[in-house]
Target: NAD(P)H dehydrogenase (Quinone)
Amino acid sequence: MNVLIVYAHPEPASFNAAMRDRARDALTRAGHEVVISDLYGEGFNPVAGRHDFLSVADEQVFHYQTEQAHAARHGSYAPDITREQKRVADADLLILQFPLWWGGVPAILKGWGERVFSYGFGYADGLRFDTGVFRGRRAMVSLTSGGTTARFGAGAAYGELERQVLWQIQHLGLEYMGYELEPPFVAYGAPRVDAAGRAAYLDALEEHVLRAAEKPVDRSLKIESPLDLVPDGAWRQQR
Model:
């Protein structure tokens, strides 16, 4: 299986880095091919703009989805987007590794999704959720939280983990693209856990990712050219 780990933490000595390395090493030993997108380490720019494109659909008005569709049709994405889209397209299993900051993913990971899962590559009109581009592929999130398990749940301070905290990245992000989700892996209270607790988290993460990688995928279901299924100029008005 081809696995892509998208890693979003600025500190190489972080526990997130240890989780990334443990997942990579376990999957590699099991015979899987693993690629890592180190967003901070590779200097990924999370800010969308005209710099995303090598050619222009409309020089007068910048409409992001229109420019994305043009780039998808003409192969004119900027090199960093082209690189990340190839990594995503090759992956049978996508793992997002990040710390939970302000109740969501770090800004660099949000920007990665906005620029990489673009219109014409990650989705198009009528190609979402059950009809999504990445049907047949699997995805999961792996994260650290400063909050303990007591902070999450119905009526708790931070809300229910999957139905509230992770709803945007899991449902409106990964499932939107057609991925089948694995349960999230969470290292709760990571700053407060001792060495033995962190070791236990890493052991549990290894089991989690290996189980995910054992599940079948169907590469034939992915839609390779989404814009072939929608009319040219499908995006209409600026918003």
